């Protein structure tokens, strides 16, 4: 973000804790804030009537949660839940809408992120339909690691199965295969990635499609 816009934003940003499992917004509810995770990860989930769910995207330090506000919808059919605890900032809906309409650089930045997010959602749908559970798990681990500073995630098999929309037994078997291959270590709800290059060799093409699009649209500094 250009320095002038950032200086104007700073007084309006509110630092907030983002504990594991916190629901930032529910399906169909009016959104009052956008959130900018700093070291937390937020899952965007679609929850069915029977209570089952599937993750459609993850957002971390690269992005913003609550795009429906500046895109004009005001609400969305998905749910946003903190997947990895941490901190973040939030900005009131009126403020982000005003900035989106006022500043061309802000509008371009938010639209580029939205395009990247749509790519992730689309590729997730393809991956869930055509690729194995262990490939999906590799994709999910790598996307999560890209949004964290370390190589460890706090996540149970039950929560991962809810994210991927598959049976818990399938996740357990996939995690066992990755552990036996020396790629990860799983114990007491913590997953440590031991061999990231190995995960990258094992993952399906979906991860690189998403990563390349984020790198293209959201480099660290972009002329707008």
UniProtKB/TrEMBL annotation:
GO MF term (any one): DNA-binding transcription factor activity
Matches recorded under InterPro entries: cNMP-bd_dom (IPR000595), cNMP-bd_dom_sf (IPR018490), Env_Response_Regulators (IPR050397), HTH_CRP (IPR012318), RmlC-like_jellyroll (IPR014710), WH_DNA-bd_sf (IPR036390)
Top-rank taxon, per record: Bacteria
Coiled coil: none
Keywords carried by this UniProt record: DNA-binding, Transcription, Transcription regulation
Domain HTH crp-type: 131-197
Keyword Zinc: no
Keyword ATP-binding on entry: no
An annotated GO cellular component: cytosol
Pfam families: cNMP_binding, HTH_Crp_2
The protein, known as: Crp/Fnr family transcriptional regulator
Species for this entry: Hydrogenophaga aromaticivorans
């Amino acid at each position: 973000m250009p320095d002038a816009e950032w200086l104007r934003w700073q007084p309006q940003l509110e630092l907030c804790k983002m504990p594991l499992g916190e629901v930032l917004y529910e399906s169909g509810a009016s959104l009052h804030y956008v959130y900018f995770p700093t070291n937390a990860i937020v899952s965007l989930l679609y929850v069915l009537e029977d209570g089952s769910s599937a993750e459609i995207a993850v957002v971390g330090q690269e992005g913003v949660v609550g795009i429906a506000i500046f895109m004009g919808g005001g609400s969305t059919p998905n749910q946003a839940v903190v997947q990895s605890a941490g901190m973040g900032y939030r900005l009131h809906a009126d403020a982000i809408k005003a900035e989106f309409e006022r500043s061309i650089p802000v509008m371009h930045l938010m639209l580029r992120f939205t395009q990247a997010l749509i790519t992730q959602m689309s590729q997730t749908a393809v991956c869930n339909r055509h690729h194995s559970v262990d490939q999906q798990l590799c994709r999910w681990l790598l996307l999560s690691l890209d949004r964290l500073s370390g190589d460890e995630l706090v996540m149970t098999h039950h929560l991962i199965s809810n994210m991927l929309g598959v049976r818990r037994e399938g996740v357990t078997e996939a995690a066992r295969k990755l552990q036996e291959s020396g790629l990860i270590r799983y114990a007491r709800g913590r997953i440590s990635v031991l061999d990231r290059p190995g995960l990258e060799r094992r993952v399906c093409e979906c991860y690189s499609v998403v990563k390349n699009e984020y790198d293209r649209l959201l480099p660290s500094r972009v002329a707008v």
